[in-house]
Fold this protein.
Amino acid sequence: MAAGGLSRSERKAAERVRRLREEQQRERLRQVSRILRKAAAERSAEEGRLLAESEDLVSELQGRRRRREGLKRRQEEVCDDPEELRRKVQELASAVRNAKHLVVYTGAGISTAASIPDYRGPNGVWTLLQKGKTVSAADLSEAEPTLTHMSIARLQEQKLVQHVVSQNCDGLHLRSGLPRTAISELHGNMYIEVCTTCTPNREYVRVFDVTERTALHRHQTGRTCHKCGAQLRDTIVHFGERGILGQPLNWEAATQAASKADTILCLGSSLKVLKKYPRLWCMTKPPNRRPKLYIVNLQWTPKDDWAVLKLHGKCDDVMRLLMEELGLEIPPYNRVLWGKSITSFNQRVQELRIPSPSGPGNSCGRTQSSPWRFPCAPRKKAAIVGSHCAEAQRRLHLGTPMPR
Ligand SMILES: [Zn+2]
C-alpha cells in the first residue's frame, strides 16, 4: 500500500477518471461554443436543450465574447461623418470661446501628419510591431509642426488656451512658437539636454536628437556643459522612471493649470498614460466641479465616459474646422520664429545652429560659440527598423506609468 492509502492501480484509475472528465468538459465547451455561433432560429431542439443544461458554460462563453468584442472595438478607428463632425466642432468652438481657463493635453496623434508615426493607432509603431511588420523610417529632425501644433500656438497667443500639457518628446510644440512657459513636456524633449550641475540648470536646445546614446537609467548624452564642463543629460522620462527635471517637464505649471482649468481639450492622446496622473484630472474635486472634458481621437479612450463631447476625427481636420469657426487664421510654420521663441524665453537657453553631429563640414558637430565635445559617430536615424524598434518607440512616444 502506497502513501495516502491508495494502491498504484487505484491512483492510475483515479487519474484516468480525472482525464476523462476533463476531456468531456472540453468537448461540451466545444459543442456549446459551436451552437452559440449559430443563429437562435437555426438551432435544433436537442441543441436548445444542451444550452439550457449548460447555463454556466453559456454565460462564460458569452462573457468571453463580449470582452473580445469590447477589446476589438477599442482598437477600431471611428470617423464621424462630415456633417456630424462640423456640428461637434461648433459645440467645441463655443466651449473654447466660453472657457475661462482652457488646458490642452496632446499625444502622439497630433504628430502623425508630421511623418512621425503614431504609437497605438492601426498603423502605429506598436501595432505594426505586434503584427511583426517593419516600420518605415522617419527623420524626426526634419519633422515640422502640424496644422494642429500651429493652431494651438495661435490659440495660446489669442489667450484662448492657457496651457499645453504634452506627452510627446518630439519638440514640435516648441517649434510651433509656443512659449516655453505655456507648455509642460511631461516625458521630456528629445532636442533638449541639460547641465544639472549648474545652478539653475543650464539648458541646451539642439536641432538634432540628443538621445542617441541615452537609455533607461542612462541619461548622459556624451556632451559637456560649456560653462562648468559637467556631463549633460537628456530630459527623457522612460517607462518606470519619475521625471525629476523642472524643465522641460514643467510639472508645476501642468498641475497649476489643471487645478485652474474649467475646460480640458485632449488631442490625439490615447490617455492611457495621462489618466495615471490624477493631478491632471482634478479627481479630488467633486465630479460637478471638475473641468469639462473634450476629446478628439479616432479610437476609444479610458476617459470617454467622462467627456462632455467626443469628436471622432483626425486632429488636423478638427483643428482646421475649429479655427474656421473661431475666425482665426492658422499661422504657417517658421523656423526663425522657433529660434526666437526659445531665446526670448530664457537667456540661459542656447540655440545652437548645428545641422547634425555628423553633418557635412562639421564632422564633430562643434561650433565656435559652443565648445562642447561630441565623439564622432554616424548619426542614427531616429526611427525605426528591426532591432532599433524598441529604441525608436522609446524616443517617440514615451510614457511613464509611475503615478504622480
Ligand atoms: Zn554646467
Notes: The first helix runs from residue 8 to 37. Residues 195, 197-198, 202, 225, 227-228, 230 surround zinc ion (CB under 6 Å). The chain has two domains: 8-75, 82-396. Residues 345-404 have pLDDT under 50 and may be disordered.
